[in-house]
Amino acid sequence: xxxxxxxxxxxxxxxxxxxxxxxxxxxxxxxxxxxxxxxxxxxxxxxxxxxxxxxxxxxxxxxxxxxxxxxxxxxxxxxxxxxxxxxxxxxxxxxxxxxxxxxxxxxxxxxxxxxxxxxxxxxxxxxxxxxxxxxxxxxxxxxxxxxxxxxxxxxxxxxxxxxxxxxxxxxxxxxxxxxxxxxxxxxxxxxxxxxxxxxxxxxxxxxxxxxxxxxxxxxxxxxxxxxxxxxxxxxxxxxxxxxxxxxxxxxxxxxxxxxxxxxxxxxxxxxxxxxxxxxxxxxxxxxxxxxxxxxxxxxxxxxxxxxxxxxxxxxxxxxxxxxxxxxxxxxxxxxxxxxxxxxxxxxxxxxxxxxxxxxxxxxxxxxxxxxxxxxxxxxxxxxxxxxxxxxxxxxxxxx
Length: 399
Known about the structure:
This protein is an alpha/beta fold. It contains ten helices and 19 strands.
């Protein structure tokens, strides 16, 4: 390939990268997306795609407001990208129930409900009210928080819709691996890849779990660790669930529009010790699509059947394992790279990559075009890469 030019280069074609490409292309910029594998080949291809605000991931009010906005923006943009791309995402909106199945879960769910309900219109339900909504829930349920509207969208389908819509707006997808950046002083001037150079003014590093590899390019240690996760797709021989179910210890149980029941996931539940699922950078690089484990399969089936006993009659259609980008505080890392000009990070979404993909695209667009986020209800500083800058400078400019 010969050298070429673009106004913006997006590195990575997962849900976050393709969302960034879409919003930047929609703003009229000339966008080139570089992807070393395939669209949605990383965390996006194994993501549950649950977009529920009442949960343990949004652990403070500032982050919770981003969860609310992420739901609203996704709901708003899905019909637009479906129309542009001609590709259906299978996005669905349903009520959500955050269930408490034992003493520990009840304590956690009630504690979170106490402050989250000040931001989200949620209601505490007693056991008989829970089972009136979904009678198949185990009678041992202690109660639940009802979220009037949650949603779910398959990660690969959302990602492909974003990419196709971006291409309709003029963005170009190039299959190649990035090997470095070129600089004029501290300002980026080009992206080096296996087949040449792309001269550009702006680079968005949306590399998911592989974002650490960019550390030597930008003199900043990208504090993202690879977090392994597994979930199951089940053939459930009963009518679909009409609510999206989650519990702190047992994870999610969601009937998808394609007919499968999704349950999981390891490393993604409130009570999981995530350090048990962190893998090395080398392992994640060599095995980006890890083999599922029999232990995880057995645990996921057991945990989900504790919530819905009828799950014992389901059969496993697919066992999915993947690698997520895990940040030190479980919040995304979105914004300009400290000490550099023209380079932005959009990674570290941990378990909320699909939930926050669309709003991340909006945030990156506003950073590039305006230097600040134009939405005033949410605080973008909680995602600023500079919060890790003190410990993230590369020693002597090398890894």
